[in-house]
Amino acid sequence: MPEGDTIFRTARTLERALHGAVVRRFFSAMAEPARADDERPFAGQRLVRVESRGKWLLMVFGEKNGADAEATQRVLATHMLMSGSWHVYGPGAKWQKPREQARIVVETDKFVAAGFRIPIAKIYTWEKLRRERKIPRVEEDLLRVEFDLEAAVKRLMARGAESVGEAIVNQRVMAGVGNVFKSEVCFAERVSPFARVSTLSESRARALVEQARRQLKANVMEDSGDRVVTYRGRHRRTTRNADPGASLWVYGRRGEACRRCGAGIERALQGDGARVTYWCLVCQPMPGVE
Length: 290
Fold this sequence. Notes:
Helix content: 10-25%
Shape: globular
CATH architecture of the largest domain: Orthogonal Bundle
Strand content: 15-25%
CATH class of the largest domain: Mainly Alpha
Low-confidence stretches: 234-240
Mean pLDDT: 90
Number of domains: 2
């Protein structure tokens, strides 16, 4: 599943291509956007902006930006889950995927944005969006300037009975962390992803949140590309080395030597969602275990 950094970069690309442009054609192969489009068609409206909220991507349609215009705007919220993606094409450009896989198409004079295999798409008013608990608020998104660090620490500490790994991928705690960053953040802070949150001190919890934000922000820099990089040693991923684990500390490296201590990297499924987790038993021992 794409994590917060991927969605942020996607929103940035769409924003650069579509910001302020008039929508000449809007197509949806999905039931809910099609119904909402019948009531308020996007064709003829401007695409005011595109932004990310954790793992959600929001497209705002209306005539102008600003708080005073929110009453007349509509927000298309999409989630990629495991296989969705957005592409931007110029007029007449060859599409990289079959057109029948495009579930949403937004066309302007200069660009076409095609959402392939998008599994979730909903249209909101701003009032309804603020009541939607599935979509994070800006202050919960690790990559937004509005992110509230102290509030995130409190939300994390409030989940004392949960494992650290499960808690930090909860998008209501801090939005944007998925399986890759979960494993990398815990390793960087030498915290076992299977330890209970209740074993963390407040300063330790704050360090985890700060580390998560630092790693995500590093991966949305202009030169970061579409890979996740947390390890920048001699095995850093290159075009000749397509192994994703080459630029990571632990994720995807089961059985390989820990880059710190040399012990073997472990892998297990964690939590009710059976999320994959990687860690080093030596560098990340369970509390109270020597």
